[in-house]
Design a protein that fits this description.
Strand order of the largest sheet: 4-3-2-1-5-6-7
Order of helices and strands: EHEHEHEHEHEHEHEHHHEEEHEEHHHH
Number of helices: 15
Distance between the termini: 56 Å
Shape: globular
Bound molecules: nicotinamide-adenine-dinucleotide, magnesium ion
Oligomer: single chain
Structural class: alpha/beta
CATH class of the largest domain: Alpha Beta
CATH architecture of the largest domain: 3-Layer(aba) Sandwich
Length: 381
């Protein structure tokens, strides 16, 4: 029986993680969980799974006083206290945003298995995470569908790899030209063609920031350099990613888009059954169409190279600029195309340092958010 602490239980990945735990009650138990603002989800999760430790963003006495035998923690620091108190084997990090980094570090510092959906962790703190993995007993397993696909393929054969290939659906605006993006609305951007996900990642998919993040994640997870990581379009999100070998053959992971598949893989630490497809050449693969990625149409993905090669505070700056810009766009304060401009401005104004501590990264996160607030208010042109 694996004891699981689920951060972000009220979200899209969080809810689907509960589905997997519910379906395999002999193998998994929920010993702790967190929610942000959706406090109405707390009673139903406690009543169904009976965990004894809960973290919530703000104190809500009318709910917490109903559960005398449950210990409640609060706020960002409460997430770290929850991980330490609940005596779990695995932390599933399904938080959205930079708030996810510190709990990921805490999980590994406490030798837990970290199942990671929160991509902002590796984008902002990939170096810190890999240092903890080298020095400690903790373990890291991805939940992102592309990285689970790559893990599966590389587990079968990681020799003579030519490129690892991450697939992209193209997001809500794949068919629009850059000029046509000028007047798109949040409502348009939230219509993802293939996946139903939280709001922030859905906007990240439309801007292609999500694929940029995924290249950075792949670098930290698998150690391939930027030049060895490629993108390809698969509009149906049926092919989750591929490995190309030096003899031109491919191994790939396919299936209907359903995040419960990669979540289950992570919860079982990769020891569950799965089928992969192997073809001598890509033309032999007929089940779904793969197309070259349009790097000129989505120049933001080039930022992954800068983050990977220059390290330091570039990832934290990129992430904080994006987070603030996405929420400004969702609140109709800026245009869709401003998201990319704001990121560019912030990344071009980084005072970089090497080997930043968590505290350095947190300060960079805060100062970048302040900078974006000024840009949004029109104080910086
Ligand atoms: P979501 O918005 O649906 O859920 C986010 C969760 O985090 C919620 O439980 C929310 O209450 C909690 N949260 C947010 N801010 C918080 C804060 N300040 N303090 C405490 N809790 C907070 O997001 P999601 O779509 O489930 O995505 C979660 C992460 O997984 C993101 O990093 C995303 O990029 C990644 N991811 C998501 C999918 C997907 O299919 N949804 C796929 C791959 C990766
Ligand atoms: Mg993904």
């Amino acid at each position: 029986m694996k004891r699981i602490c689920l951060l972000g239980a009220s979200g899209s990945i969080g809810g689907q993680t509960l589905d997997v735990i519910r379906k395999h009650p002999v193998d998994f138990s929920l010993v702790g969980f967190s929610v942000g603002k959706q406090v109405d989800k707390i009673p139903e999760i406690i009543n169904e799974f009976n965990p004894k430790f809960v973290c919530v963003k703000e104190d809500t006495k009318d709910i917490t006083k109903q559960f005398h035998n449950v210990k409640f923690f609060y706020g960002d620091e409460g997430l770290n206290k929850l991980i330490k108190a609940c005596d779990c084997d695995m932390v599933v990090n399904a938080l959205v945003g930079f708030v996810g980094l510190k709990p990921s570090l805490t999980a590994l510092e406490n030798d837990k298995i970290l199942s990671l959906a929160n991509k902002e962790t590796l984008v902002t703190g990939g170096e810190l995470i890999n240092k903890l993995l080298r020095e400690g007993k903790g373990k890291l397993i991805p939940i992102d569908s592309e990285h689970v696909a790559l893990s599966k393929c590389l587990a079968v054969d990681n020799t003579n790899v030519d490129k690892i290939v991450i697939t992209a659906s193209g997001g809500a605006f794949r068919k629009l030209s850059r000029d046509q993006l000028e007047n798109v609305t949040p409502e348009d951007a939230l219509k993802h063609p293939t996946w139903s996900m939280g709001q922030k990642i859905t906007i990240d998919s439309a801007t292609m920031v999500n694929k940029t993040f995924e290249i950075i994640e792949a670098y930290y997870l698998f150690g391939y350099k930027y030049e060895d990581i490629e993108l390809m379009f698969n509009y149906e999100s049926f092919v989750h990613s591929l490995v190309r070998y030096k003899n031109g053959s491919y191994r790939l992971d396919e299936g209907k888009p359903d995040m419960r598949v990669p979540i289950k893989y992570a919860l079982y630490e990769g020891s569950c059954e799965y089928d992969l497809v192997y073809v001598d050449k890509l033309e032999d693969y007929k089940a779904s169409n793969l197309y070259p990625f349009e790097y000129d149409r989505f120049p933001i993905v080039n930022l992954a190279k800068k983050v990977i090669d220059e390290k330091g505070l570039y990832g934290a700056t990129f992430n904080a600029a994006n987070e603030e810009a996405v929420y400004a766009f969702l609140n109709k304060k800026i245009k869709f195309t401003d998201i990319e401009n704001i990121i560019d401005y912030c990344v071009n104004n980084v005072n970089n340092i090497q080997n930043p501590s968590y505290e350095d990264i947190r300060k960079c996160d805060l100062s970048t958010r302040e900078l974006v607030a000024k840009i949004v208010k029109g104080e910086i042109k």
